[in-house]
Amino acid sequence: MTELATMDFHPQPQAGQPKPWAFPAPERGTLDNGLTVLRCHRPGQQVVAVEVLLAAPLEAEPVGLDGVATIMARAFSEGTDKLSAEEFAAELERCGATLDAHADHPGVRLSLEVPVSRLPKALGLLADALRAPAFADSEVERLVRNRLDEIPHETANPARRAAKELSKELFPATSRMSRPRQGTEETVQKIDSAAVRAFFDKHVRPATSVAVIVGDLTGVDLDALLAETLGDWTGSSAEPRPVPPVAADDTGRVIIVDRPGAVQTQLLIGRVGADRHDRVWPAQVLGTYCLGGTLTSRLDRVLREEKGYTYGVRAFGQVLRAAPDGTGIAMLAISGSVDTPNTGPALDDLWKVLRTLAAEGLTDAERDIAVQNLVGVAPLKFETAAAVAGTLADQVEQYLPDDYQATLYQQLAATGTVEATAAAVSAFPVDRLVTVLVGDAAQIQEPVKALGIGEVTVVSAE
Amino acid sequence: MPMGHTATAEAGSGGLTATEHRLANGLRVVLSEDHLTPVAAVCLWYDVGSRHEVKGRTGLAHLFEHLMFQGSGQVKGNGHFELVQGAGGSLNGTTSFERTNYFETMPAHQLELALWLEADRMGSLLAALDDESMENQRDVVKNERRQRYDNVPYGTAFEKLTALAYPEGHPYHHTPIGSMADLDAATLEDARAFFRTYYAPNNAVISVVGDIDPRQTLAWIEKYFGSIPGHDGKPAPRDGSLPEVIGEQLREVVEEEVPARALMAAYRLPEDGTRAADAADVALTILGGGESSRLYNRLVRRDRTAVAAGFGVLRLAGAPSLGWLDVKTSGDVEVPVIESAVDAELARFAEEGPTDEEMERAQAQLEREWLDRLGTVAGRADELCRYAVLFGDPQLALTAVQRVLDITAEEVQEVAKSRLRPDNRAVLVYEPVAAGTTEEDEEAAK
Q1: Which helix or strand (DSSP H or E) is residue A400 part of?
Q2: Which residues of A touch B377 (CB under 8 A)?
Q3: To pair with A30 at 20 to 30 A between CA atoms, which of A61, A213, A439, B285?
């Protein structure tokens, strides 16, 4: 039964004339202390974004001290040679600024956002944090305790728990990538201020660091400002650290992390692929979008919009660590959650989607709509200074040229349906996927076994 | 003392302007030009939210929002998503207590498509709405509820606090996600009636912000929306007003499988749109907004009894706003230790008021938040609609930051004194239990 509408209908309008837009090209330079600086003027963006990359990767953490990079990153905002921890936090907030810092496989990253009128003051605080961090015993002790308190919260979160299990499964125990980025209870409790200081002294210096500054810089004498802030940071020179190769085991198998009583099963299905230096990357971006980039992609068209098993399932590729010679790796994964009783049927459908993709390929229409979206959203996606700064910093961190993003858009537009299909199929081969399910084993184990998508193992959530 | 340290030369409006128009069918239109980036944001606020729902049909406004993406007169299936994304745009919708919004951000040359799509569903949704999409989206929304609330630790805290803070029968007693039982009970006819009642041009505001030609944009809006008939069948929402203070401390202890003890509380605060609401925002920022706040310094830095501690504000126009305290304990620390420290800090703040430096810090933080919100065309479009729908004047969005900067220390102290009191809060305490034990089991064991 339908209802007649009473409005006047008009045909779907045609697009107007597109206006040119290009991903912004940064200006690159080096300060006297060796710090590389990328700057980018974005008119109208009153909140300036500053990203600082430190070449302190997780694999540089001493054996048994996983988490020391994280504690160091957090300790940057806990006082300097001039200010106590409380004073530093207060001064930063007085600028209306936020400063986040986190450690990941490629290194430590600090992200500052501040209204441009208070950039000088905030940049001074950031420089002090890097130049002369206090790393006071009691503050580091507090950060360690705080970190230990966080771990049970992460274990209780189905998505976080799944990510931890997948890393453990994919990588050999000897690889830093197999272990939680922010350390375990066992390793974190061994961290003290001496360990943080030692890690800092060994791995943090301006010559191996990069600062990215983006925003409306009208009237800002950035050279003078940099000279008296980040330019004042000193340190020895150092050779770039080689990126160790990593092997991954993507033998098809299923690990159920048991959470009795869970009303949903968290899925994380993944393996490892090449980093962005690989020629396949643009086609893989396109194919992955068609598979699971949005609500109208293949996975959600079935799992959400036809079956209602989920609020949404996404496929993605995310660089874990790049290498200058292209031997780095990315995580290729499908994630989402489905209701407990439908876990078996949902996985069955998910595998059917993958098999159909391999058998029949993508359609030209799917490819076209994906290209139009991925390329077309660029001006929206990079409206803010923070978005531009984040991408510029990613490029540097991944040893990519400063015009990588701009070039990627041209490559996406030039990628055909056949290439996109091939990339998606080889990114997600049905027999080479490690499936982690965080859910109620008693209810899902048998239906999952019956699917034949790999040997099923059950582990405890704790 | 000088108040209102401003980060921008024209902090009052950031140099932004907006014009207002009204179609004959009652649709209000707000336009704001900004040619910095070739993008345009379209935002539609319908003046309907979960507060309009009736007993036994909680969650209907949100479920209905999902149905708005299931096709309309001239748009098939998932066409709303497909067409916008295929044009290089992004889109979504959200439902809160007081409104439902739909938004598209488009490359500027695709603006007309977004207007056509929004008009199509405003005028002809029922031509496409059927049982199949109703059944499917009911399942999707139930899975949304599981994913965001039922399957995560503390996931239902907000729902529980809201139910405590607003009495049974109050329009804000339940949250927009609704209950599983009510989601199951909703019928296709409920959805149809909901559309006929609330989805009309005279119950909506549309804003378009960005790289636009205002005259052309207004002509398109007239063309696509102008023939949709308005109607006046909307019942007045139930009265949400309540006494300024609760008058007693309400309390619920939850024994659940959570990773740590937690103390949460909802304080009844002044309604949005008042100076007192802005003063409350400043007060809660000083007390619990960030890593230099009083509660963070006390509980996380000095006492080291909490892993996280902070205050948030839920601004509401049709009922008292809520100040939401959230503290997760460290290690084996017991809740009463936290609670007495919180009470001591709140009492001291009410007694002494904020320092000049605290005012400066809080206002600088709130100012940056406003710059962030108004710094994108989508954020600005949403704020223009918010002030148009809830307060009748979109221009208020452009001066909101100035109003926050005008708040004085005396006003902050006053609101702390009158509202941040133990007899004006609903408290939720979480006590962890071992895996496999639930509250029901405990009951049965007794």
Answers
A1: none
A2: 383
A3: A61
Tell me if chain B has a CB within 8 Å of the CB of A12.
yes
Does the domain at A27-232 match CATH 2.60.120.430? Answer given as no
Residue carrying structure tokens 């890593």: B291
Architecture of domain A253-460: 2-Layer Sandwich (3.30)
Mean pLDDT over A221-238 rounds to 95
Taking residues A219-230, report their average pLDDT. Answer: 97
Question: Taking a contact as any Cβ pair under 8 Å apart, which residues of chain A between 416 and 455 contact chain B?
Answer: none
Among residues A270, A268, A245, A392, the alpha carbon closest in space to that of A329 is found at A245
Residue A42's closest chain B neighbor by CA?
B36
pLDDT digits (tens, 9 = 90+) for B402-444: 999 999 999 999 999 999 999 999 999 999 998 655 544 433 3
What is the extent of the structural domain holding B340? 250-445
A261 in reach of chain B (CB within 8 A): yes
Q: In angstroms, rounded to a whole number, what is the distance separating the alpha carbons of residues A343 and A221?
A: 58
Instruction: Answer whether B39 sits within 8 Å of A383, measured CB to CB.
Output: yes
User: Could you write out the DSSP letters of every residue in B277-300?
Assistant: HHHHHHHHHHHHSSTTSHHIIIII
Residues B132-137: contacts with CB under 8 Å, at least 24 apart = B133/B67, B133/B70, B133/B71, B134/B67, B134/B186, B134/B187, B134/B188, B134/B191, B135/A308, B136/A305, B136/A306, B136/A307, B136/A308, B136/B70, B137/A308, B137/B63, B137/B66, B137/B67, B137/B70
CB-based contact B17:B7 (threshold 8 Å): no
Q: Is A364 on the interface with B (CB under 8 A)?
A: no
Sign of CA dihedral A309, A315, A321, A326: positive
Nearest residue of B to residue A387, measured between CA atoms: B376
- pLDDT below 50 — which residues of chain B? 1-12, 439-446
For residue range B315-340, list pLDDT tens digits in order. 999 999 999 999 999 999 999 999 99
Cβ neighbour number for residue A5 with a 10 Å cutoff:
21
CA of B52 to nearest chain A CA: how many angstroms apart? 24
Measured at the alpha carbon of residue A461, what is the angle toward residues A432 and A61, in degrees to the nearest 5?
75
CATH of the domain at B347: 3.30.830.10
* ipTM over cut 0.90: yes
Spatial distance between the Cα atoms of A457 and A169, rounded to a whole number of angstroms: 11
Of B151, B223, B292, the CB nearest to A90: B292
A194, burial (CB in 10 Å: exposed 0-12, middle 13-18, buried 19+): exposed
Task: Classify residue B326 by its DSSP letter.
Answer: E
pTM score, two decimals?
0.95
Task: Indicate yes or no: CB of B260 within 8 angstroms of CB of A152.
Answer: yes
Q: How far apart are CA B366 and CA A183, in angstroms?
A: 34
Contact A455, A253 (CB under 8 A): yes
- In-domain check, residue B104: yes
Quick check: is B431 in a domain? yes
Residues of A in contact with B106 (CB under 8 A): 380
